[in-house]
Design a protein that fits this description.
Layout (H helix, E strand, L loop, with lengths): L1 E6 L22 H13 L7 E4 L3 H10 L6 E4 L25 H7 L4 E2 L17 H15 L7 E5 L1 H12 L14 E5 L1
Parallel strand pairs: 1-5, 2-3, 2-5, 3-4
Antiparallel strand pairs: 1-6
InterPro entries: His_Pase_superF_clade-1, His_PPase_superfam, PGM_Phosphatase
GO molecular function, one term: phosphatase activity
Protein name: Histidine phosphatase family protein
Length: 191
């Protein structure tokens, strides 16, 4: 089974680093919108496809633009929300990486399925500061859940640290921040 991890398009929080990381709920930039539109050609979707989306505005916007007019399954899950890489227990979640509430998602992004059965407790904190041992247990459970879509293409629209954390687990080798994907960068992983 193949998972295709896609990093969101360019967000406002990346325009003036490091100060812009303190932007709450950043949108896609104009360039990020163009990048999201380019996914339509790179990965044409069908109604049989599944997109699992992190609950941040920039990932939701990326998925909405890319999947416009396609009635594929679109699932929002905090199990692919922002994740620090590498983990530093003393670090705090940055404002740009705080996840949206289910209520805001329902209001601003109608038509999406909000995954709660396996992830309800993670809607409040997300996985950003989760210690590696706990993340691995949660990630393995998430990947097991993904297997229910075995005969479908599964895309995960997420964040550089999250994608790197999942890739490290799935591929079985150590990664560094140098392995981070650029905006709308892709990693395909078989498991």
């Amino acid at each position: 089974m193949e998972l295709v991890f896609i990093r969101h398009g360019q967000g406002e929080h990346t325009l003036n680093l490091p100060e812009s990381l303190h932007t709450s709920d950043p949108d896609l930039t104009e360039e990020g919108t163009i990048q999201a539109k380019s996914l339509k050609k790179q990965f044409p979707l069908s109604k049989a496809d599944v997109i699992i989306i992190s609950p941040t505005r920039r990932t939701l916007q990326t998925a909405r633009i890319w999947s416009e007019d396609i009635k594929c399954s679109k699932i929002v899950s905090p199990l692919v929300s922002p994740r620090m890489f590498t983990q530093k227990s003393e670090w705090q979640t940055l404002p740009c990486d705080e996840i949206l509430s289910k209520e805001i998602i329902k209001e601003d992004f109608s038509g999406l399925h909000i995954e709660e059965e396996r992830s309800n407790e993670w809607w409040y904190e997300g996985i950003n500061k989760l210690p590696d041992k706990k993340f691995k247990v949660l990630a393995k459970d998430f990947l097991k859940w993904c297997k229910q879509f075995e005969n479908k293409r599964i895309y995960i629209v997420s964040h550089d640290g999250t994608i790197t954390s999942y890739s490290q687990l799935l591929i079985g080798r150590e990664f560094t921040r140098n392995d981070f994907q650029k905006e709308t960068g892709v990693i395909k992983v078989n498991f």
